[in-house]
Specification:
3 domains, 5-stranded parallel beta sheet, FAD/NAD(P)-binding domain, 444 residues, Fumarate Reductase Iron-sulfur Protein, Chain B, domain 2, 19% strand
Length: 444
């Protein structure tokens, strides 16, 4: 990045065309066939497979790695897709270092796990690039299911239901299907329109129709869906954004990190995107890290993540945190914003130091200020409204078993449903399991 191209305030075109291309290229390119074989040979093919236990979708990891080792990556892909139909995206965004790879025996013994995530990408890409679909639909059942939300949970549920022979209609508020895979992850993790390509490939199972621009409260009601369909799956995610609850939140250039990431994901010409010189991101999760790293890659000079608790409490993985600091992002812990100041637009953020004790979080009287011409809020998302008549568990939809809600005939899966971690791979598992439960219910 060339500092000579920085301009004051929030501006676009800070970098050269080559800088943008380099900064937003694939962060972890696919393994070459020889590299994949070498990586697969490190697997012990454990009988009890702790990696498989650690995978939310329970992929048979030793089996698919053995299939790569024996030169049959397409068979490995089918092993993966049988449990996780979005295995291609999950190979790119799943925090494998906290899940399967952390449980790997090689990690325990040597501190260097088998590269499960990269091997999964090698296998899934090998099959998807051929354009073929590994599964076929069962005989039509005559049953219809509505899926509200075309994110990972909704797509996973829809695919499994269609494979079982049911006719599925997916409704989604946005112009494109994919949910967070399309709008909510760092561009360098899935460049080249992979999210859209994955949706197109998934739809090859047949029996799935997508209607965009529709959501609960906007063309749809839960009661109407129940009357029209034999079952309903709510996979609506968390569309609401938590408020900062700090003075000055309404100033110009104080934005939601999810909106910033969505705009960045949909803009092919990164030079058109405006970014501040001094960016402060408030939060401690993956959204905060993705927003901060991409701010730096767009040409921001100083980027700071401010988190109210300690490093160990951040929901972003340590690998992601290290990646952020590696590109020049500063991470401050145990600080909370108390006000944003500026004359119409953000200029500084005042923070108080915090203490995280048995009685909860306490703000110190000691404060400091950070220069900030752009402030991004990444402090969590919430359910947008309460779907008609559904019981809530805290701020999410209460579910029992495989996603059954308090309303008969209605299931919920993914981030909107209580329980489970807010991960893409968890959403896929919940969507799949809800579909299996719906199938069993519909078929008696």
């Amino acid at each position: 990045m060339s500092n000579s191209q920085f301009t004051p305030g929030v501006a676009s075109g800070r970098l050269s065309a080559d800088d943008y291309t380099r900064n937003f290229s694939d962060i972890a390119p696919r393994l070459e066939p020889h590299e994949a074989r070498v990586a697969a040979d490190r697997c012990y093919f454990c009988h009890d497979a702790p990696c498989m236990t650690a995978c939310p979708t329970s992929i048979d990891i030793p089996l698919f790695i053995r299939q790569i080792a024996t030169g049959t990556p397409e068979a490995a892909a089918k092993t993966i897709f049988s449990q996780n139909i979005l295995g291609g995206m999950c190979a790119r965004v799943c925090p494998t270092e906290q899940l399967c790879e952390e449980a790997c025996v090689r990690e325990t013994a040597e501190g260097k796990p088998v590269e499960i995530g990269r091997l999964q990408r090698f296998a899934t890409d090998s099959l998807m690039e051929k354009g073929t679909h590994p599964f076929t639909r069962d005989k039509a059942t005559g049953k219809t299911v509505a899926v509200v939300g075309a994110g990972p949970a909704g797509l996973s549920a829809a695919h499994r239901l269609a494979m079982k022979g049911h006719d599925v209609t997916i409704y989604d508020a946005r112009p494109k299907a994919g949910g967070l895979n399309e709008y909510g992850i760092a561009s360098y993790k899935a460049p080249g329109g992979f999210a859209a390509a994955e949706v197109g490939w998934l739809l090859k199972i047949g029996g799935i129709r997508i209607e965009n621009g529709k959501s609960l409260g906007n063309g749809l009601t839960l009661d109407g869906l129940k009357k029209q369909f034999d079952a309903v799956v709510l996979a609506i995610g968390l569309a609401g954004v938590n408020a900062l609850r700090a003075e000055g939140e309404s100033l110009a250039n104080v934005v939601n990190a999810v909106d910033f990431i969505a705009e960045l994901r949909q803009e092919p010409d990164k030079a058109k995107l405006k970014i501040g010189r001094d960016v402060v991101v408030i939060g401690g999760g993956m959204t905060a890290v993705d927003a901060a790293v991409q701010s730096k890659l767009l040409g921001a000079e100083n980027v700071t993540i401010a988190y109210r608790r300690g490093r160990e409490k951040m929901s972003a993985s340590t690998d992601e945190q290290d990646h952020a600091t590696g590109v020049g992002v500063r991470i401050l812990h145990n600080v909370a914003p108390v006000r944003v100041t500026g004359n119409g637009a953000a200029h500084e953020v005042e923070f108080a130091y915090t203490e995280d004790g048995p009685q909860g979080l306490k703000l110190s009287s000691e404060t400091f200020r950070l220069k900030a011409d752009q402030v991004m809020k990444a402090i969590g998302q919430t359910l947008s409204g309460q779907p008609e008549g559904l019981k809530l568990d805290g701020a999410k939809i209460a579910v029992t078993g495989a996603g059954r809600t308090s309303v008969p005939g209605v299931w919920a899966a993914g981030d909107c449903a209580a329980g489970g971690e807010d991960l893409t791979v968890t959403a896929v598992a919940e969507g799949r399991d809800a579909a299996e439960d719906i199938h069993a219910s519909l078929m008696g």
